[in-house]
Amino acid sequence: MKIDFDGIQAFVVIAELGGFSKAAEQLHVTQTALTRRLQKLEAYLGLRLLDRTTRYVELTVVGREFLPQAQAIVGDVTRAVNQLKDVSSRRRGNFTLACIPTMASQMLPNAMRRYAKTHPGNRIRIIDASGFEVRDAVLHGHAELGIGLPTERHVELEETLLFEEPYMFFCREEHPLSGKKQIVWSDLHEAELIAISTMSANRVFLDYQLAKRGIKLSGTYEVRHLSTAIGLVAAGVGAAILPNSTLEEGARPGICRIPLTSPTVKRKIVILRKRNSTLSPAARAFFDMVSDQANT
């Protein structure tokens, strides 16, 4: 069943203003067009809602009974449309963002503060997850946007580069390599390393980059999360090769963060969205903000 909103709106405005001339002016249509809207509605209903002559317009009995319901319909639709226009123009609303833990604790808070200043009242639901889980959350519609690592290309996903960050060597101050200003990969053959699980996107990327250069490293220990690796480094269990953002300078007294060179390996941080899928206004505003920031 097709609801004739134009006809219902015409009926309500005519009834409220008491005539076709004023109603046509308010709706910005000609009197002829307004008359056709009302006639079409009455024909569809099989009922006359208004009695009209050249001198007056009067509600029929059925019209008087229908008017409150018609006013409610027009009011509800008008409010709903105005709310959507407000959402669109001011980019209001809420959205879900999937994000890898290092970005959730480092880059994301700053981005959220900037976003809150320009879009107060908008809410962001955050799913902190691994790189592969971020990808799947966006792919399956659990999140509109994802901040993570490039993974296996998927035809339904679009990646936009935000920035690159280097992998660093993390160790205790007592470690034999802690006094170096920079470390080359050949220095690490004797080091007891805490490796990230091969199920991690970080490990997959790092192994691939090193393999291209003929470098192969093995860890004495293996963990799943970067935070666990840092905890073991802090406890003096071993050293670790982790992204720069894993730990801010000075955040853990006693831990050194030393650049790795020859070569310097950097991981890319991207923002993901579904290809050919329209973002909500709130998500679009966030996407534009972080993308523009990346390009400055």
Automatic annotation (TrEMBL):
The keyword Oxidoreductase does not apply. InterPro entries: HTH-type_LysR_regulators, LysR_HTH_N, LysR_subst-bd, WH-like_DNA-bd_sf, WH_DNA-bd_sf. Keywords: DNA-binding, Transcription, Transcription regulation. PROSITE patterns: HTH_LYSR. Coiled coil: none annotated. GO terms for cellular component: cytosol. Residues 3-60 form the HTH lysR-type domain. GO terms for molecular function: DNA binding; DNA-binding transcription factor activity. Pfam families: HTH_1, LysR_substrate. It comes from the Bacteria. Belongs to the LysR transcriptional regulatory family. This is LysR family transcriptional regulator. The lineage of its organism: Bacteria, Pseudomonadati, Pseudomonadota, Betaproteobacteria, Rhodocyclales.
